[in-house]
Amino acid sequence: MRKASQRAAAFLTALFLLLSGNAFAQDAENSGLLPVDDPGGDLTESLADWAEQRFRTRRAVNGCVVLTQGDDVIFSAAYGSTRKNGGDAVTCDTAYRIASVTKCVTALGILCLWEDGLVDLDADVSLYTGFTVRNPAFPNDAVTLRQLLTHTSSIRRNVNQYVYDWDLISLSRDPIFDHDVRPGTAYAYSNLNGALLGAVIEGVTGKSLNTFMTERVFSPLGLAAAYHPYLLPSYVGTADMLAANGNPYLRAQDEINTFFTEYNDEADPAGNCGNSVGRVYMSAEGLSRVLRMLLHWGQWQGQDVLHTGTVMMMERDQSEVTHSSVHCFSPYGLGLERVEGLPGGTWYGHQGRYAGQTVDAYFQPSTDLCLVVICNGCGYSLEGSLVHLCVQWMERAQAYAADVPEESFEVTEE
Question: For the chain, what is the domain count?
C-alpha cells in the first residue's frame, strides 16, 4: 500500500454493507447530458442508502460500486437487473462492456511490451503497426506511442472510423489528422489513438490482442475479461449496454451470435484496428483489481504485473519526461487520466461514456482509495470533464478516508 495507516474497525463496519438486486423506478426518461434531479441525500443515512439513492435519482436500470482502501474492500454493491423490466440480478462479477476504460486496460499491454524492450515509446509507431501512421502535413514528424497514450498525436477529435487504407492518407485525402497541429504539441482526445494501441500489440507480438492481454494482464490478475463476450468463461454473466431510456442499445448476446462473422481473434493490426477502443468486457470487481494493482505499484498478490517504475511513469505528466516526444500538457499520463482539484489529492484512472452507460475507474494514492462506479440505462450530467455521479463518489469516499464526520460533508448538487 502507498499509505501505511489503516482505517479503524468502526470505519470499515460503517462502510461495508452489501446490497444487491434493487429495482429502480422507470417512470420517467432521462437522456444525454441533461441534468438529473439529485438533491444530494440525507447525510445521516448509511452509505448503502446514500448509494442506492444516487442510482434511483438517475432512474438507472442497473449498476455497481466497488470501493476499496489498500487491501480492504470497504464497500461493494450491485443494483438492479440486466434488463429494464426483469432479467437476472446484477452482481459485482457481472461483465459490462467498459467502453473507453478499454484504452486504459490496453495501455497496460503496451507497457508490458515496453518493459520487455519490444517497443520504444518515442519511436515511430509505424515500425510496429505494419502500416504508415503519419500526419501528411508534417511528413518528417513521427507519431509515437507516447503521443497515442496521451492523446497528443495530432489525430483529430471525433474520428470514429478505425479501419482505413492508410496508404491513401494524403494532404488531399485525410479523414484522420489535424493539419494545423504538429504531433506532440496539442492535446485532443480521440478514439483512434486507442485503436492504434491494439494494432501495435498485434503487430509486435503476432498474437491477437485478446490472447496477448489474457496472457500478460488478465490471467495474472485472475480476471474473467475479454475483448469479446464470446471469449468470456461460460460462467460469467453479462449486462447489455443500455440507452438512456433503459432500452437495449448493444446486446451482449447479439455480439456472441455474430462472433464468427464479425470478430477476428487472429493478429491483423490493420483489420482489427478498433478492438482496443471500447470492446473489453470486465466486471466492476475486475476493474477494481486493475486499480489495486496500479495502487500497489504494479503488484498483485505477490507477483509483478508491471514494474514499480513503470507505474510511476504512467502517472507522470509526459511533457516533463526527458527526451519525451510530448511537448505539451495533457491530462493523461501513459493511458491514465489525472484528475486534479478534488479533496485528498490526484485521482488516476479512466472513464467510459457510451449511450446510457457510464463507467468510472479511479484510484487516489494519497488515501489508498480505489473506486469503480458503473451506471447503466440512465442519463448523466458532467461536472467538469467527469460524470457527476463519479465526482460525488470521489468526494464521499475521500471524506470517509480523511475521517471527516458525515455531518460536515456536503455533496454537490446537480
Answer: 1
H/E run at residue 199: helix 191-205
From CA 363, how far away is CA 108, in angstroms rounded? 15
The burial of 167, by beta-carbon neighbours within 10 Å (0-12 exposed, 13-18 middle, 19 or more buried), is given as exposed
> What CATH number did the domain enclosing 142 receive?
3.40.710.10
At 362, the amino acid letter reads Y
Separation CA 297–CA 1 (nearest Å): 8
10 Å Cβ neighbour count for 261? 6
Alpha-carbon distance of 326 to 102, in angstroms, equals 22
pLDDT tens per residue across span 87-125 = 899 999 999 999 999 999 999 999 999 999 999 999 999
Q: Is residue 388 a part of any domain in this protein?
A: no
* Beta carbons of 277 and 199 less than 8 angstroms apart: no
Q: Residue 274: CB partners within 8 Å, gap ≥ 6?
A: 162, 163, 195, 198
What is the per-residue pLDDT across 308-362, written as a single tens digit (0 to 9) for each? 999 999 999 999 999 999 999 999 999 999 999 998 999 999 999 999 999 999 9
Q: In this structure, how many other beta carbons lie within 10 angstroms of the beta carbon of residue 160? A: 11
The answer to whether position 140 is within a domain reads yes
Reduce the DSSP state of residue 369 to 3 states and report it: strand
The helix (run of H) or strand (run of E) holding residue 204 is: helix 191-205
Q: H or E segment at 304?
A: strand 303-304
Structural domain for 165, as ranges: 93-228+263-281+311-335
